[in-house]
Design brief:
2 domains, two-stranded parallel ribbon, globular, alpha/beta
Length: 189
């Protein structure tokens, strides 16, 4: 198996991909293997080739929770019949719609039969040492974090159900945006 490494510079892989897809469709090649990244997946160069993939194409999505983002989700090929997601955490945090899109695209996610404890017990994981490093926010990071936190609090106000409706938080889209902004700020610290 010689996979096409479809990422970085388009000129490094696009003609090879076109040729192999042509060979596949003309039955002079039995399969094509492509390894790509999310940023290449959404690019025009890769998207222009997807329509030529046969229905018996298998997509393996590593860490597919990323594929629930709107731009990535709309870039997934619809003509592909076989899909295999690989993830211990397929849900998208604070994004029920994106999670549902994943389930719609990939089907039911099976619980892992080989969990982390199994991997440790069987010696299947690479040995590493884990040393947490605590990072405090700088003054320049603390002020925006505090402002976002003050906005998040009121957005978490729970609205009591009316007329038998289900209770809900005030504005899901607003709180999602605020939480994502704060998560980006903290992850960059």
């Amino acid at each position: 198996m010689q996979p096409i490494l479809a990422f970085e510079n388009l000129s490094n892989w696009q003609s090879q991909l076109s040729t192999q897809i042509y060979n596949l469709r003309s039955s002079s090649q039995s399969f094509v293997t492509i390894i790509t990244t999310n940023s290449t997946l959404i690019g025009d160069g890769f998207q222009s080739q997807l329509k030529y993939l046969p229905p018996k194409t298998l997509i393996i999505g590593d860490e597919p929770h990323n594929l629930g983002a709107p731009k990535l989700e709309e870039s997934l090929p619809r003509n592909v019949g076989l899909r295999l997601p690989l993830s211990a955490t397929p849900e998208r945090y604070f994004d029920d719609g994106g999670t549902q899109s994943l389930f719609d695209n990939f089907g039911v996610f099976l619980q892992p039969e080989f969990n982390l404890q199994d991997g440790i017990t069987k010696g299947a994981l690479v040995h590493y040492l884990y040393y947490p490093v605590l990072v405090e926010l700088t003054e320049a990071e603390s002020l925006p974090d505090l402002k976002l936190t003050k906005k998040i609090g009121p957005s978490l106000q729970y609205r009591e159900p009316e007329n038998g409706d289900v209770g809900d938080f005030e504005d899901k889209q607003d709180i999602k945006s605020l939480l994502m902004q704060r998560a980006r700020l903290i992850s960059a610290a």
